[in-house]
Design goal:
single chain; 197 residues; alpha/beta; Rossmann fold; elongated; 9 helices
């Protein structure tokens, strides 16, 4: 899935910078420097994430966010500000901002925030990682449902406790043979491991 990000900042340099770092990560990015036209743009195009500057002429980021929330309570929104304060942080959270970020920021740190916000909304640019996470969760829930420890599951499958732990935490991909042994040991049909993917 192509994830679309909408950057709203009255400063062109900030729009260009965010567009550059987000595009490099594979996101499709639109920018806007006039905060009064945000709602108009949101009606013409569907976005997965909006990045709003806090201090803009005519209207603040939290005022724009309040308007967005009147029509969309689920859209992911990150508020960015060069002048963080308790008041603006609280106002952002009241309007259900997904995150509140201080400027200037380092690109890796900001991109991690973007990825985290999108992941919480169920969006990902890494479907393979999502698949590993879903399989790991299914195995963990089934194992716990049968009151089995990792050690007991290891004994049933002939796989190491370490490997099983890595599979459950999605830190290692399992071979088809390993998944078959795990499914068998848990009394599951092999397809059940992929049910939530």
């Amino acid at each position: 899935m192509q994830i679309r990000v909408f950057v709203v900042d009255d400063e062109k340099d900030n729009c260009d910078y965010l567009s550059l770092i987000l595009t490099r990560e594979g996101y499709e990015v639109d920018t806007l420097q006039d905060p009064t036209r945000v709602l108009e743009q949101l009606k013409t195009r569907e976005y997965h994430l909006v990045i709003l500057d806090m201090v803009m002429p005519k209207v603040t980021g939290t005022e724009v966010l309040a308007e967005i929330r009147k029509s969309d309570s689920d859209l992911a929104v990150i508020i960015c500000t060069g002048n963080p304060s308790l008041d603006t942080a609280v106002a952002s959270l009241r309007q259900q901002a997904s995150d509140y970020v201080r400027k200037p920021f380092e690109a890796p740190e900001f991109l991690a925030t973007v990825k985290n916000v999108l992941t919480k909304k169920g969006f990902s640019t890494d479907p393979e990682a999502d698949l590993h996470r879903a399989i790991g969760n299914t195995i963990r829930e089934s194992r716990k449902g049968k009151n089995l420890t990792l050690k007991q599951l290891a004994r049933r499958t002939g796989l190491s406790v370490s490997l099983l732990s890595q599979i459950e935490r999605a830190e290692s991909s399992a071979s088809i043979s390993s998944l078959y042994r795990i499914a068998n040991a848990l009394g599951l049909h092999m397809g059940a491991l992929f049910a939530d993917t």
